[in-house]
Amino acid sequence: MMVNFQKVSFLSSAPKLSFCPPDEGIEIAFAGRSNAGKSTALNTLVKNKKLAKTSKTPGRTQLINFFELNENQRLVDLPGYGYAKVPLSVKRKWDINLSEYLRFRQSLRGLILLMDSRHPLTEYDRQILMWSSQTNLEVHILLTKADKQKNNALKTTLEKVKNFTRDPELSSPSISVQLFSSKSKLGLKEFEEKINSWFTRELLNPQ
User: Is the pTM above the cut of 0.70?
Assistant: First the structure.
């Protein structure tokens, strides 16, 4: 059964875990560095440029934003991390909120981790992968802005990230990687199929 991503609508925003909607149903979350194109990728998925707020100034997504596909399925736009011009106190607050959501949210079934294909595997990216590993959370990595690199460079980046995900310390049940471009739509079908497979599997085999 295919998910109709275009039926999505804004549900609510939360400053931290305790303000999130009831912890039930199925959630797929989006995480990534502030300038990795996280909100843009979400908008591309649902074919709505105005759904998730985007800005030329990284670091604007400061809340956990919930978007509803139906009463049991949600997409979640997590606060962007790692932006240098954000005050240290704000960075620490975001880190705590991200960590708590990834570690304790029971309805979270999969994580889309976005990395700029020109600058993958930052310290924060690696931390997110470790948090996910601790909770056995499946992760699908989108190497974004692939239209800004040539094919040889993209192949090298893709292999580099795949090799990193094979590290025995990353004990997540599944970490997959793909190239993606919101501008050219490269990898959009694969992206759609991954999220759809997570939602469908949970409907067929609920926990």
Answer: yes
